[in-house]
Amino acid sequence: MDTASSQPGDLVLPLPTAQSSTAASSAPRLSSLPLGLIQDLWLAAEAETCSLTLEEFSVALAAVGAKFNHGLPSATSPDSAQKAAFFHSLHLPELALAHACALGREVAWQRFLGLYRASLTQAAIAIAGSATLGHDLAESLYAELYGLRQVDGVRQSPLASYSGRGSLLGWLRTTLAQRHVDHHRRTYREAPLDTLDSPAREPDPSPVPAELAHLTHAIARVLQALPAEDRFLLAAYFLDCQTLLQIARILHVHEATISRRLKRLVADLRKQLLDNLQSGGLSRRAAEEALGADPRDLEINLRALLQTSQSSSFSDKTAPAPTATSGQS
């Protein structure tokens, strides 16, 4: 059995001693908000502990507000109160941490590794199905997040695109899964021609808008048809980032039961989505390409679809809930 370490100390990257942000100097400012509000947001985010200045954080907030129109429809012009409410709804500490890492702040990057390295390595191993492959996948993501690639002398880190609207861990898991899909696509495209079913042009790097629309409708249909307990399970694990043990305690079942149920549920959902997409007119290949879409490209409210009034216990539970000292995993 191959194994992989998930200790933060295993990854050592050369960190810059000081670095200014060219991108930040050209970004919009929060001039329409009172300075007192900006300071409150900066303090709430504990941005100073990440070596992120008030001005740098205000630039990041302004970019997020402009991108999402402060949570309002595009045709609506938000007032100061609506802007303030939008900013207060963000995951401010995680937003500050992500943008400080994107700027190359050593203290922020070390905190990031301490908080997320182990969880991301475990997630990568689960996605890749191998400890060795998972470790390689996680390492490649860390390098990308750190911003080793530069354009015109400016570091490029995907962390700069994190908006704070959802949890940073959820965003990282999504990014990790997408990088795995991208690697699978490249591997598939590079396979010898005699291993392919028939000659065909390479698929587009991402699904076209029509395929995204098919996928959005298919997801809505499949999730709405799920039992309440399945919707709760998906929301708790993937949206609220609860651990298997936390969910098991809520539902009064063993942690292993939650793990098995999640695996079956995800496999069933994938099959149902493929069937829905194909019945909607997509070919098998187009349907699989659509499933590889970046979730951020979909105009869909997953939380609303998975909303359920109660978390009823599973009917297949076979043992009492584990205690804190049971040692089960």
Q: What are the SSEs and their pairings?
A:
Elements: H1 22-26, H2 35-44, H3 54-68, H4 80-88, H5 92-102, H6 106-128, H7 131-146, E1 150-151, E2 154-155, H8 168-189, H9 209-224, H10 228-239, H11 244-251, H12 255-279, H13 284-291, H14 302-306
Antiparallel strand pairs: 1-2
Helix pairs in contact: 5-6, 6-7, 6-8, 9-12, 9-13, 11-12, 12-13
Q: Which terms summarize this structure?
A:
2 strands; mainly alpha; two-stranded antiparallel sheet; 329 residues; 2 domains
Would you give an account of this structure?
- With 329 residues, the chain is an all-alpha fold.
- It folds into two domains: 10-161, no CATH class; 209-329, no CATH class.
- Helices cover 56% and strands 1% of the residues.
- It contains 14 helices and two strands.
- Strands 1-2 form a two-stranded antiparallel ribbon.
- Strand 1 (150-151) and strand 2 form a beta hairpin.
- It is globular.
Hey, roughly how much beta strand do the residues contain? under 5%
- Outline the biggest β-sheet: 2 strands, antiparallel
- The number of distinct structural domains comes to 2
Helicity level: 55-70%
**Spatial sequence of strands, sheet with the most strands:** 1-2
Gyration radius (Cα, Å) is 22 Å
Number of H/I helices: 14
How many DSSP-defined strands?
2
What structural class do you assign from the helix and strand content? Answer: mainly alpha
Shape: globular
Q: Could you write a compact summary of the structure shown?
A:
The protein has helices at 22-26, 35-44, 54-68, 80-88, 92-102, 106-128, 131-146, 168-189, 209-224, 228-239, 244-251, 255-279, 284-291, 302-306; strands at residues 150-151, 154-155. It is an all-alpha fold. The chain folds into two domains: 10-161, no CATH class; 209-329, no CATH class.
